[in-house]
Amino acid sequence: MKRWLTLLLCLTVLICLAGCGVASTAPEGTGLSVYYVAEPQQAGGGDILAAARVDWTEQAKRPPEVQAREALHLLLAGSDDPALSSPIPAGTHLLGCSINGSMAVVDFSAAYGQLSGMKLSMADYCVTLTLTQIAPIRMVRILVNGLELSYRHSNILLAGDALLTSTEDVVRTFAARLYFRGSEGELAGEDRLLTLYEGESRGTVIMNALLAGPESTELTPLLPHGFAALSLRAENGVCYLNLPGTDEELLPEDPEQQALLVQSVTRSLCSIDGVDAVQILLDGEMRGTFGTVDISYPLTGE
């Protein structure tokens, strides 16, 4: 169903853009494309997404959060073009909008929660396609009265879910939450948009990102230099992470820090859709411990 919806959105957006001659992104500092729903007679049948261009020269000089709020207010107000309408229900108010790294967190009032099915998807992607033109926003999380909608397939929305990409060697991008050491030594999550290339698995990309370290200067990596993974595979909700035995020699001496490192890996891999637990193997075999951490059973990071 989700794949069908994504394909439908891809086709309808492309049809709309071709028919209206509207660019999908705005040149920086000159304009912004605000996405609405086109009337069926304008689209040739069926609801589709269409963009209205607005002058963004002055707004582009302002902080990203200010730009995001102004763009959302435009979307809520609707377009001056009678052929375009806002997909967001009347009476919806913007309660808040913040940016954490590359993620915009948008909080709408209860009226937004009236949406479901295709109407919800159309509204979600009008918001997402509009906001992801504003740097550094690359993904959007939409809340209603501060809470996630439980019936959404995913609460992290990417522009690439609705539009085809022209990058030749990129398979796709995916959202994940990576865990690093916080400023007070605690485990802290960082929402990231990762790129998946031909021949890579999401697990491998996550492990490489953990090794590369966080984007935020307030976080520090937990995996030591030289730490490696031999292979990863997922089966029945369990990710089997096969590590070389030499990784055990790289663990910190403090048992609490060892546990934090394992939790970092486990929680990061569990942020992948369909992965509920991680079973750590050493040189392809089940072991009782990894350092002082019990790995005799699948870990959830809790």
Give the strand line-up of the largest sheet.
4-5-6-7
Number of helical stretches of at least 4 residues: 6
What is the residue-mean pLDDT, rounded to a whole number? 82
Low-confidence stretches: 1-29, 41-47, 163-170
- How far apart the termini lie comes to 31 Å
- Portion in strands: 25-35%
> Helix amount, in percent?
25-40%
Structural class: alpha+beta
Radius of gyration: 22 Å
Overall morphology: elongated
Order of helices and strands: HEHEHEEEHEEEEHEEHEEE
Q: How many β-strand stretches?
A: 14
How many distinct domains? 2
| Main beta-sheet strand count, sense and barrel state | 4 strands, mixed
Provide a brief overview of the structure.
The protein has helices at residues 2-20, 40-43, 64-77, 117-131, 202-212, 255-270; strands at 31-38, 48-55, 84-85, 94-100, 103-108, 139-144, 157-158, 170-181, 187-197, 231-235, 238-243, 277-282, 289-290, 293-294.
Describe, in plain words, how this protein is organized in 3D:
- The strands form five sheets. A four-stranded mixed sheet has the order 4-5-6-7, with helices on one face. A three-stranded antiparallel sheet has the order 2-1-3.
- The protein is elongated and about 65 Å long.
- The longest helix has 19 residues, at 2-20.
- The chain is an alpha+beta fold and 302 residues long.
- It folds into two domains: 2-161, no CATH class; 170-294, no CATH class.
- The protein starts with a helix and ends in an 8-residue tail after the last strand.
- 26% of the residues lie in helices and 27% in strands.
- α3 (64-77) packs across α4 and α5 packs across α6 (255-270).
- Mean pLDDT is 82; it is low at 1-29, 41-47 and 163-170.
- It has six helices and 14 strands.
- It has helices spanning 2-20, 40-43, 64-77, 117-131, 202-212, 255-270, and strands at 31-38, 48-55, 84-85, 94-100, 103-108, 139-144, 157-158, 170-181, 187-197, 231-235, 238-243, 277-282, 289-290, 293-294.
